[in-house]
Amino acid sequence: MGDPAAAPAGGTNVNATLQACQISSILYLHVYGAYCSQGDSPDKSIPQLLTRALDENKIIKLMQVKIDDTDVSSNIVRETTSQPWILTIPSSDNAFSEKIPCRGQAMAEIYFLLFKTLPTGHHTITAEVTRVPLQPNQPVEHDDVKWDIKVVR
User: Fold this and answer.
1) Is the separation of the CB atoms in 107 and 129 below 8 Å?
2) How far apart are CA 63 and CA 32, in angstroms?
């Protein structure tokens, strides 16, 4: 299941703002991820790309996840740093508003949820992320998303 930042209201990936799925095993949910690539920063080294990705996450002011209206943020939000990878975005119609061509080494810092099991039945998962940029002329980013899932055995 995808990153709410890739699906803001009115964004290019509108289908990701409300998703329905049926699962029978472990659920991996990407809550938020910041990345930096040589596609948009061609002069940056791998360590510099990672620093920029880490800096993007430092401005997160709210990261909240609820399952069936119960806040689970403090229990299951995890953070991981990627290894270097190649980012290729071939189309200007992308959820990240990247300019084309966009290809190069990238690094990411990702927050995710991993659910071992949920009870059989219907569940609602909501995620909300608010980022407040350090520059006063930049807009506040407020992303929220809702997933309706059905757990089957």
Assistant:
1) no
2) 8
